Structure formats: C-alpha cells, structure tokens
C-alpha cells in the first residue's frame, strides 16, 4: 500500500492548587492567531512567545482581579536576550462518582449524574518547565520541555528549531517532540487523543519539516514509532486560519494523516469558528486498524466543544466526546465547565464530566462521572 502525507531552569512561586489550560486551541480560534504565534514549538503547545506575553490580556480576557502595585511589572520569562524560561504548574482535585452494578455487573449507560461518591483525590497533574536558548535569535533555537514529577524528570521535548532561514516560510525541527497531528487540545483523556495515540505523554524522536506562510500551516514529521521494530511513524498536519471573516470573525479548517504501522492508519478533519461570543471547535478521526492482536478495533473518534465568553472574562465550555468501537462497545462523554482567567498567570476551573460506555461495567471504568476543581499557574 502506498501512503503519502503532505502537508532548563525556572523558579516557581509557592505551590497552589493548579491544573491544565495551556495549548488551548479555542484561544487561537477566538484570537485569530496560529499556534506558532503564541508558542515556541511551531506546531503548538509548551512555552509561550513574547507575542503571547505582550497580548496576554487580549488573548486570555483575564479579569485583572488581583491588584498590582504601581510600577510593578509582571515577569515575562526573559532572562537575557538569548535565554528565556516558562512553566506550567497544575494540580487537580477530583470527586469521582459511580453507580453500584447489579448482580450481573451491569449499570445504566445513559446517565449524566451518578449516585455514589466513590473517591476524592488531589493530584499533581503536571509540573512542566520550559527553556529556550536562541543561538541565533529568530533563526536557530534550542528548546526544552521537561516534566518534573516526584519520581524524577522526563524530557518531553528536546529540539533544535531552524526558522526564518529558508525561503517560503519553511522551518526544520529535529530531536524529541510531539508529532504534528490534529487539534492539540490539552485533555489527553479525550478520545481524539487517547484513541489515536497522539497525547502529551507520547513524544517521539525524529525530524519535522513545515511551512508557515500567511494563513497556512503545514507540517510533516518522521519519527521512530514503535520501539524495536523496523518501521517509522509518519504524520502530516495542515490547516488554514483566516481572520476578519465577515460574521464569523475567524475560521480554522485543517486535516491530518498518520501512518502508525502497516496495520494502522489514521486521518483527522477539524474546524473552528466564531459567532458572536461563541467559539466552536470540532474534530473527527477515522481509524483503520487491521492488526488481529488489537480487538475490538476503534473505528472513529469525534470531539466537539463550544465556548461562550461571558462578561468578557468568563469562559463557559461545553464538550462532547465519542468513540465508535467494534461491537457494542461505543463510548461517549459530556462535560460542562466554568473557566475564568483571574490574572495572566492564574486560571481556576470547575468542570463536570459524565462518561457512558458498555452496560457490563462492574468496575465503573466506562460509566462514571467526575467533578474537577482546578487551578492553573503559568508563565
């Protein structure tokens, strides 16, 4: 079969309860800015650029609630003209709800609320430190994204980036990084991330070439893929982001393809737009898996979210997840959340998610509900 795909160091403030909001694509659609405008990693996520710092209030719509004494400037992450840092500190307080199964291990699979509080946990979701060394400013950059945990540190991304040196907006990237694919929402448990395998826990070693020109982004990456075999992982991702479109303001449209092995291929299609104070975002992934060792096979994953900006500072978000699996194994998930930006460095979240799956679920793996209390500190 012929397949072609085109297209460290930071000092943190005292610990508080914190959690995820970085790399939120709805902010790009709402602001009309590409991933590369706000992030050092040109395909999105991770350390924020000076553009994101300078325009933080316009992008985040923060409440500006905490009074700052006159003459005090916020930290920008710039240490010198050549070296800068960033960080994300996140903890999640989770209230998990489940239903008691009957004698056959069956529960209702069509419920938004569950009856029994099963557990309460406070977890450090992620502490990530970013560093950027500009060997030649705006041309050659060494970038590091390191996740710190009680058990040690894990380098998620260690890359060299060559940008603005080649014609037509072409860039080159090599090292360890996240292969470019789909909409990079922060939630790794979403089916479009967990079922396709492109999460923030799965970096890979390889190289990427891309082009950023006008409204266009296109990238092609070749990475190791499954360790120990003779195959490679090929991914391609491309999108157009138009701003100042009549009525809808900004429009995002993109597609991705991935060859994970001879037995598994994936393709994604995603769109985003604005209407009044609403920002819409959605992705559909088609999964073709003929490996006899992985059964039942996922066939399709879908995600949609609607964001409503109230009072010019409060984001109200509704989400929907769906995965189609062989047999009677389909799953879905609904969520609703309140997400105000208190200040440019601080955002709390209150999120409720309900998951539904196969009715035979004695452990409550597929049929459950979670209430998250979160706060995210970042710079």
Short summary:
The protein is mainly beta.
What's the arrangement of secondary structure elements?
Elements: H1 25-31, H2 35-38, H3 50-54, H4 56-60, E1 83-98, E2 116-136, E3 140-149, E4 152-162, E5 170-177, H5 191-194, E6 204-213, E7 216-223, E8 233-245, E9 249-261, E10 264-275, E11 278-289, E12 298-310, E13 314-325, E14 331-340, E15 346-356, E16 368-378
Antiparallel strand pairs: 1-2, 1-16, 2-3, 3-4, 4-5, 5-6, 6-7, 7-8, 8-9, 9-10, 10-11, 11-12, 12-13, 13-14, 14-15, 15-16
Question: Could you characterize the architecture of this molecule?
Answer:
There is one protein chain. With 379 residues, the protein is mostly beta strands. It has one domain (25-378): Porin (Beta Barrel). 7% of the residues lie in helices and 50% in strands. The protein contains five helices and 16 strands. It has helices at 25-31, 35-38, 50-54, 56-60, 191-194; strands spanning 83-98, 116-136, 140-149, 152-162, 170-177, 204-213, 216-223, 233-245, 249-261, 264-275, 278-289, 298-310, 314-325, 331-340, 346-356, 368-378. Strands 1-2-3-4-5-6-7-8-9-10-11-12-13-14-15-16 form a 16-stranded antiparallel barrel. A hairpin with a 5-residue loop joins strand 14 and strand 15 (346-356). The chain is globular. Residues 1-22 have low confidence and may be disordered.
């Amino acid at each position: 079969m012929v397949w072609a795909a085109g297209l460290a160091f930071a000092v943190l403030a005292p610990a508080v309860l914190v959690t995820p909001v970085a790399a939120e694509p709805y902010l790009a659609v709402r602001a009309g800015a590409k991933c590369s405008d706000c992030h050092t990693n040109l395909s999105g996520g991770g350390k924020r650029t000076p553009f994101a710092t300078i325009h933080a209030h316009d992008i985040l719509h923060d409440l500006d609630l905490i009074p700052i004494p006159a003459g005090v400037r916020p930290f920008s992450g710039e240490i010198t003209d050549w070296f800068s840092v960033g960080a994300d500190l996140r903890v999640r307080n989770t209230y998990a709800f489940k239903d008691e199964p009957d004698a056959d291990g069956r529960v209702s699979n069509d419920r938004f609320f569950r009856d029994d509080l099963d557990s309460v946990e406070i977890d450090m979701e992620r502490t990530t430190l970013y560093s950027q060394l500009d060997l030649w400013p705006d041309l050659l950059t060494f970038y590091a994204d390191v996740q710190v945990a009680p058990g040690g540190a894990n380098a998620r991304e260690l890359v060299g980036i060559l940008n603005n040196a080649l014609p037509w907006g072409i860039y080159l990237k090599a090292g360890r990084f996240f292969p470019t694919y789909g909409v990079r929402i922060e939630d790794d448990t979403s089916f479009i991330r967990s079922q396709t395998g492109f999460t923030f826990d799965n970096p890979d070693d390889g190289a990427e070439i891309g082009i950023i020109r006008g409204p266009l982004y296109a990238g092609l990456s070749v990475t190791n893929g499954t360790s120990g075999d003779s195959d490679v992982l090929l991914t391609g991702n491309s999108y157009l982001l138009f701003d100042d479109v009549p009525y809808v303001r900004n429009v995002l449209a993109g597609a991705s393809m991935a060859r994970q092995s001879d037995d598994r291929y994936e393709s994604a299609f995603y769109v985003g737009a604005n209407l009044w104070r609403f920002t819409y975002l959605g992705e559909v992934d088609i999964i073709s898996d003929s490996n006899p060792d992985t059964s039942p096979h996922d066939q399709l994953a879908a995600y949609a979210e609607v964001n409503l900006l109230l009072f010019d500072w409060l984001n109200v978000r509704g989400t929907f997840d769906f995965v189609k699996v062989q047999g009677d194994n389909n799953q879905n998930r609904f969520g609703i959340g309140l997400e105000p930006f208190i200040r440019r460095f601080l955002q709390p979240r209150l999120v409720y998610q309900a998951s539904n799956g196969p009715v035979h679920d004695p452990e409550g793996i597929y049929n459950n509900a979670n209430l998250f209390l979160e706060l995210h500190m970042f710079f």
